[in-house]
């Protein structure tokens, strides 16, 4: 079954134009604070709390375009739902690099993914200082609002004003400059904490041998467990998954050559090359403090940015992930706004079955539609689950920008699709359970849609159980929000 409640009934060779898609990559330099009054539909009265989003808000510095959007300064957007109303606020994370470039009016730092300082290689040679951009995720945990970027420590923000208050070191457990990933996982019932929830995260320090640190935080936002592991080889890992007993990380088959970076010829990200003749390694780390044995399994070559979920079945671990055939190179003279989607292999939904007794991996394709940015019911993290929700292409085949939200029923192997095509482009959905709900799909999906026709963004609310009725509500913002990365929801309200 596939439901596509799209009133335009689009059936074109392409569901979008590149010009429309490109408009979402314009900077938003203003900071806003207002109640949203342009609403289609009705905000559910039971929907109470705050949606936080993070992503690059600046794609240029005073007209000097960044070479890659992932190099843009982090901007937090906050949408608070309060008794059928919604309030919007956004602010940039006030990192030293953001403030310095704002004052100078020009690019002062090299970016990880492609941006270089003006002046060619002579201006960049032996400059290893990378700007902390705090642009990847934002979470509210232990009464702390944290902007995350995986290469360094978090920034702490005031959840009411979004003012940046400084770096967060968790009472000194995190060292200055120590990485804290942008992809924490919330364990809803931790075995080691008598069933209390805990936040699990990791950090990577790559090299010829890679140091992997696992952090576990209690509900007060304190790091109560910190464990360091070493694995052979260079690791480029953006996301991971957990089960009650394990952390699982996929070591993508890449090679890093630092020489062009040191000589100012390329960014660090451009020095990473995919090795299609090498296997993907799967690192399985026990979470219990007394368990030290790490297992490393191998599977076919592929590249993974994001995982959906993992769960245990006896001596096996099931992992669902979005897998690409390879990693697309970022060329020094390329323009990301000219991306040829049709020439690149899409991300697709795969399942990996890890047998820890036999050290084997089986894999199968779950859904072939181009997709990214998955979400599930928060109580199902690390547990067996039935439903997942994910950004997807409008058409079932081929590669294209994300214009739709797809619901996948893993039991019945059916899908539902809601599409914003032809002129809408979607971001990561967040699943919010209905209060006191008993069904896994009883709740709402919250996500941003860039509307190219009006050059603005909408906050869209879908009924997660049934897409056929269309959007429950569309909240039209007064402006656009550049394409973002990740976010989270909390039942706390900040108005």
UniProtKB/TrEMBL annotation:
Its cofactor is Fe(2+). Coiled coil: none annotated. Fe cation binds at residues 183, 238, 306, 486. GO terms for molecular function: carotenoid dioxygenase activity; metal ion binding. It comes from the Bacteria. The keyword DNA-binding does not apply. One of its GO terms (biological process) is carotene catabolic process. Keywords: Iron, Metal-binding, Oxidoreductase. SUPFAM superfamilies: C-terminal (heme d1) domain of cytochrome cd1-nitrite reductase (SSF51004). Belongs to the carotenoid oxygenase family. This is Retinal pigment epithelial membrane protein.
